[in-house]
Write a structure and sequence with these properties.
The chain is of the alpha+beta class and 344 residues long. The chain has nine helices and ten strands.
Length: 344
Amino acid sequence: MYGFLIAVGILLLLSIIWMVYRIQTLVSVVKGSDKKIATGSNKVNAFMFVLFLVLGGFIMFWYSIKEFDNYNLPVASEHGVVTDQLFWVTMAVTGIVFIITHILLFWFPYKYQYKEDRKASFYPDNNKLEVIWTTVPAVVLALLVIGGWKAWSDITAPAPEKSHVVEIMGYQFAWEVRYPGLDNVLGEHDYRLISASNVSGVDFTDKNSFDDFTSPVVVIPKGEPVLFKIRARDVLHSVFAPHMRLKMDAVPGMPTRFWFTATKTTEEMRTELNDPEFVYEIACTEICGRGHFSMKKEIRVVEPEEYRKWLSDQKPYIVNNPSLVADLPLDLKELADITISEYK
């Protein structure tokens, strides 16, 4: 560690010495005491700007085209089409401006490199130009922001009435999935009830939780709205399903939500990609600790008929572990026992 600090100190010292030398040189130029203002390195540096522009531009375009399929994943949700349209419109606008400004940025040092017989033009101001380059970006950015705001408002608006509800809870370092059962109503939860046998902290004094169940895989139907209710148990996480163009933070103490409609089943996507092992997945895109890399959960998109059959075959928490309701008040215990008997 000390060796590193010493090395940094030496580099800083050398940098200071170099800067002092350069300042002295510039002062001598201003005083007229240095007759040779332009050196051979001036032309070399000017040429290097152009070379960097050409090589950097070539690498950027080559890599973007080569890796296009890796960063432009197929869309598998309705709102994902809108999201992609917004992305590519924004990319076109900002990309054109980026390319033009950087061509000028690297060309100008070459075009206007110092020459002893050239004098700089004095151009103090231009009010019309100031208005143009202020107004045009403001209008363009406003249109882009309004388009994004509209799409975001649609996504975060209340889900359609008959949406399938799925709770996604993040914790270090996994995702816990909870379904509301056939009634499509999740039971309440309380962090104080979390235990080894009750990972989600489900409150079984709420009878709506009697048919709640968990699943190792997030199963959702194609063509029908799905509402993800998202929360975190410990630190900040982020639910990211790239093919669905879905991303929403999971925040402790502040539930969030995201609703969407899947348009391609897992099998259809496997056929499209010619990849029999393809799976949709949820990943965590918020650095949440050492085990962050392991936070993955499969999403399986199936046809509605298959989803309903799968749903009817699932068994609630209290069926797999009756001890969860063993200490309930008598009236609730009787209802829980009835629920358990219906699944046996």
